[in-house]
Design goal:
This protein is of the alpha+beta class. It contains 2 helices and 9 strands. It folds into 2 domains: 37 residues; 137 residues, no CATH class. A hairpin with a 5-residue loop joins strand 8 and strand 9.
Length: 177
Amino acid sequence: MCGVEEQEGQMESGWAGKAFVVIVLLTQILIGGACDAHMSSQTFRRIETGFFGGTGQRDGHCEVFRDEGRFEEFYRGLHGNRIPAPVVPEVDFDRDVILFFSLGVRPTSGYSVDVAQVLRKGDELEVRLLITEPARDSLHATVVTEPFVMISVEKYSGVQKVRFVGPESECMCEEAF
């Protein structure tokens, strides 16, 4: 009989342990959801992606454009080596701002950057980037590239800063909004 009572006690403590784990997991989900309640996904419009950013920065580089004159000057410089030069995209700067991110100078082709998502977190916009690097065993042209992405987002009241975040949630660059 002793063995049966011991076995029943182990079963009860096993269920109690499982119930505890379930309660802890549900609590974490609810707390995480509460934290995420302060985040909201924002719409954006991809204006351009490319491989020759033209800024010459070695590391990641970002810019926020709030007015047409500064944006046009930057855009023309970005594409200064192209003939014919592309037409500067039309942007309603009364309503939108342009966000630009360059991955920086890279030694080969095979690198790219794009935007996966834009989130508002209180007084910050977080731009989540998709970054692609060439596989180690792949062949790529030996040419200097500078992958970039450019998007427009709505001017949000109360937003102070934009942060560009890489795939591992590391901050790649930040700029005043």
